[in-house]
Amino acid sequence: MSSKVEQLRAQLNERILVLDGGMGTMIQSYRLHEEDFRGERFADWPCDLKGNNDLLVLSKRR
After folding, report:
1. Is the pTM of this model over 0.85?
2. φ and ψ at 17, to 5 degrees?
3. I need a labelling partner for 33 at 20 to 30 A (CA). Which of 21, 25, 54, 56 fits?
């Protein structure tokens, strides 16, 4: 096992770690449209939803 993995495990045993990544950038690569963000649940929502990536867990479930 690499020393970096060992260091990570040691830190996990002692504290809460927050891992952050470029998820929004990855989602943008799919070139989703307004309809993708709306789905059935938000079909009649009164404002634009495109770019609200958090909604995708509700509107674009797979």
Report:
1. no
2. -110, 140
3. 21
